[in-house]
Every structure is written in C-alpha cells, then in structure tokens.
Specification:
Elements (H helix, E strand, L loop, with lengths): L1 E5 L2 E5 L3 E4 L5 E4 L3 E4 L9 H29 L7 H22 L1
Length: 104
C-alpha cells in the first residue's frame, strides 16, 4: 500500500503487485509503477482500514472548509438562496456545536 500524510492517521492507497522481475530485484504495482526489492508494503488490516476511513473523512472536512472560504471570497454568503439558507444554517449550527466542545 502507498501512504500519504493526512490528519493524525495515514491515508492508505491500495496497490496490487502486477509484475516481479525474474531476478526479483524489482516489482511493479498497478498505481505506482516500479519499486525496488527493499521497499516495504503492508497488508491492510481492520485497524488500518478504519484509520484510512478517518483520514478520508478529514480530507473531506478540510476540502469543504476550503470550498466554503473560496465561495465566500468569490461570491459572498449573501448570494445563497432562501431555499438553501435554512439547510446551510442547520449544518453550520451543527458544525459550530461540535467545534465548541473543543474550545472548552
């Protein structure tokens, strides 16, 4: 598996070994290409799958925050229509309640 840093958990990118050279000095994966024989790969277990899920959720949260800031900068929050404002306000209230727990 390939690893990327994210949050406090690692984001794991699954990869399959597709070819091993006859002398077993190199091997190839479907996503990352060529690797030497000293590279270490890990088999995903239940714990690493849960950590991967948390890392993906963190990336979604982080990307959502950037999208929100970008929208506010480009269009302004007052451009949100009345029909979407109530739903957006409910979601924002839920987020601020969660964040409030970490301020204390």
């Amino acid at each position: 598996c390939g690893w990327r840093s994210s949050f406090r958990h690692q984001l794991i990118t699954p990869a399959k070994i597709t070819r091993i050279t006859p002398k077993r000095t190199k091997f190839f994966t479907d996503k990352f290409g060529e690797h030497d024989k000293n590279e270490i790969f890990y088999e995903c277990d239940e714990n690493s799958e849960k950590e991967n899920e948390l890392a993906i959720m963190f990336e979604q949260f982080r990307d959502g925050r950037y999208a929100f800031e970008d929208f506010n900068r480009k269009y302004g929050l007052d451009s949100i229509g009345d029909e979407d404002l109530m739903e957006a306000a409910d979601h924002m209230k839920a987020i601020t309640e969660i964040l409030q727990k970490y301020k204390e």
